[in-house]
Amino acid sequence: GPKRGVMQRFTNQLQPRASSFKVAVLGAAGGIGQPLALLIKMSPLVSAVHLYDIANVKGVAADLSHCNTPSQVLDFTGPSELPNCLKGVDVVVIPAGVPRKPGMTRDDLFNINANIVKTLVEAVADNCPDAFIHIISNPVNSTVPIAAEVLKQKGVYDPKKLFGVTTLDVVRANTFVAQKKNLKLIDVDVPVIGGHAGITILPLLSKTRPSTTFTDEEVEELTVRIQNGGTEVVEAKAGAGSATLSMAYAAARFVESSLRALDGDGDVYECCFIQSELTELPFFASRVKLGKNGVEAVISADLQGLTQYEEKALEALKPELKASIEKGVAFAQKQP
Ligand code: NAD
Ligand code: LMR
After folding, report:
1. How far apart are CA 190 and CA 171, in angstroms?
2. Cα angle for residues 222, 227, 233 (degrees, 5° grid)
3. 229-241 burial: b if 16+ Cβ within 10 Å, else e
4. Where would I find the H helices in the chain?
5. Regarding beta strands 46-53 and 72-77, do their DSSP bridges make them parallel or antiparallel, or are they unpaired?
6. Coil, strand, or helix at residue 168?
7. 15 pLDDT exceeds 70?
8. What is the pLDDT of residue 275?
9. Do the beta carbons of residue 171 and residue 142 sit within 8 Å?
10. In this structure, are residues 303 and 311 in contact, taking their beta carbons and an 8 Å threshold?
11. Mean local confidence (pLDDT), 61-83
């Protein structure tokens, strides 16, 4: 017969597995949603990808459905189709909302995105309350607390299953550190804690694996670059939006980790922004162990033995993170 191409051989490796999962993407026609849907469609752990948006999702789904990987692609347009999009799904990823333009902070997105996240999470509560919920929409430091309040109001809040996606901060930290120190990319892992905006993003360079030493200048330069990674992309895109491809890559990694955890893999660790008792703040990003029920353990050891620089940065980020959390909670509580 004809010689098989590389892609054919690749896709033939993607055999359906004993357990397979359904993943919904809300905001699937957007800059993040489209490449994220593609990456999820390539996962051997996925049996169905449910794509939801307020417009343009039919075309995205038709296009994606032609990829000969095992998962099914279903499309859902507008609020009337949202319940069916959500029924029976294991993981819901939410990148719906407006992105930044140059000169804006993530908090400048609050007024629009807070309402979008609130509405979508209400539907999640009504239709798939047991699903893992991955919040990408900014400002993550506020939208996750909003989601928590909405779930509480609906009586279905499970703090172990609500995640603010901060994987992109880890992805950036790994990339920038590997470049600076000439390390093999695949080996580098830097935990990033705190939140997902400006100085609330705190890479713990002292905890880099493999163990790596940095000069004070390198620490300062790398920390600032990781904290400003989003702004670097916003400025380069010059009004056309914020990170989409690297974000889709990062979100797909977090989805894959979640599915591996759901599938019973006992060795899954990711940084994410969750309800937390690690510090005095009610939400905090840190490394966690993921299991079938969501967060199985918080890796508190990462916060021990910090450098003076990290200790200082940790204290400095707390007021801003606290204010962003409280803003989200207040928004959700004042709603009728
Ligand atoms: P985009 O404008 O390209 O896409 C957003 C999509 O959301 C659009 O297709 C839009 O139709 C859809 N949408 C709007 N309201 C909706 C609703 N009520 N229900 C369903 N869908 C709705 O934006 P983008 O570049 O994909 O960014 C999306 C969000 O992700 C932004 O808020 C951005 O700041 C955030 N973001 C977060 C991270 C992170 O690390 N957590 C990284 C990058 C971007
Ligand atoms: C990012 O970190 O790239 C996102 O949060 C998008 C942004 O506004 O910077």
Report:
1. 8
2. 100
3. bbbebbeebeeeb
4. 6-13, 33-41, 57-65, 82-86, 110-127, 140-153, 167-181, 216-227, 229-237, 245-262, 308-334
5. parallel
6. helix
7. no
8. 98
9. no
10. no
11. 98
From 52, 93, 98, 100, the mutation candidate for ligand 1 (largest count of ligand atoms within 8 A of CB) is 98
Block residue for tokens 């939208």: 143
Ligand 1 atom index nearest CA of 164: 41
Q: Is the peptide bond before 139 cis (omega within 30 degrees of 0)?
A: yes
Q: Look at residue 132 and give its three-state secondary structure.
A: strand
| pLDDT for res 2 | 45
Residue showing tokens 């095992």 = 70
168 Cβ contact partners less than 8 Å away, ≥ 6 residues apart: 229, 230, 243, 246, 247, 250, 251
The tokens for 114 are 């807070």
Instruction: Report whether pLDDT(7) > 70.
Output: no
φ, ψ of residue 67 in degrees (nearest 5)? -70, 130
> Is 196 considered catalytic here?
yes
pLDDT given at position 1: 37
With a CB cutoff of 8 Å and minimum separation 6, the contacts of 266 are: 291
Nearest to 273 by CA among 168, 171, 140, 169: 140
pTM (2 decimals)?
0.95
3 has a pLDDT exceeding 90: no
What is the rounded distance in angstroms from the CA atom of residue 29 to the CA atom of residue 52?
Answer: 8
- To test the ligand 2 pocket, which listed residue (172, 247, 249) has its Cβ within 8 A of the most ligand atoms? 247
98-108: average pLDDT: 98
Kindly name the residue from 50, 66, 134, 196 that is annotated as catalytic. Answer: 196
Can you tell me the distance from the alpha carbon of 118 to that of 277, in angstroms, rounded to the nearest whole number? 24
- Cβ atoms of 162 and 148 within 8 Å: the answer is yes
Determine the residue type at 155.
G
Atom number, ligand 1, closest to the C-alpha of residue 33: 26
Q: Which amino acid is at 278?
A: L
